[in-house]
């Protein structure tokens, strides 16, 4: 009973305290001059960074490709898995056309322009580093816990990797590149494209670890425009890597070599995304005593097996005979080589 009496006594006071507030809110809402602006709304700041007009123009003197180290411009595809009119740089974002494989330079690059580009790169690199400076940079960036690292995988030196390198160069003098997979078969090719496409200089190389130096006079605000590739284009269709009948042999001889390779012990077992730096030398050494070799590529993947076969064909050189069950069978090739014996 006492609670009911107290509630009845406080009811008029409650109405008196709420009335002025409700009247004030009604007046504010009825006033047309005041705008509904919350007190903590974020005010957008004007961007001071100027946006590049589209389409982008780049003065880089080479054709833009998805992968520079894992593609051969001299080999033309026989078909495409997607229409070549769809550029991976996006519609209307680049002043270069896309032919299904690359975005070629729109104008011819003469000898004078190449010489000027070479002089510009030398000016950016500046004076050569001393041994003490090289040792200091190597000690700073060669360790596995370095936070300025780029992982180079089976696609090799890609176009967007150039953008990543320059982004690291904004705040550090060098960048650590860790190479794994198929590109490690030919590390010289990887190093060439890194220096050629970025303009830097390799100051350290150990097995699959590379340190890429930007140069003494590098200015990130003065670097050339590198457009970003928005998606990975579908790989074109190339001619068959393995022929049914090897050139210079009959069908029976080709079949005999394939059976011999499948039944022979594996020279080595390759792992997925491994380091294949010494594979070429071991294959060359094994070909001195055997004409057919087998490489066990279990769990490597069918596409990577074919890429390994292409690399070995060009580097050893040799003739790929068979890709079956993630096994690579390669032939030394040539009847006149020492140690070759034709089985009758």
Automatic annotation (TrEMBL):
Domain spans labelled CRM: 127-225, 247-343
Pfam families in the cross-refs: CRS1_YhbY
GO BP, sorted A to Z: Group II intron splicing; mRNA processing
Superkingdom as given in the UniProt entry: Eukaryota
A single cellular component GO annotation: ribonucleoprotein complex
Biased composition (Low complexity): 38-56
InterPro entries, alphabetized: CAF1P_plant, RNA-binding_CRM, YhbY-like_sf
Listed PROSITE patterns: CRM
Keyword presence, RNA-binding: yes
GO function terms (MF aspect): RNA binding
Protein's UniProt name: CRS2-associated factor 2, mitochondrial
Source organism of this protein record: Dioscorea cayennensis subsp. rotundata (White Guinea yam)
This protein's encoding gene: LOC120250524
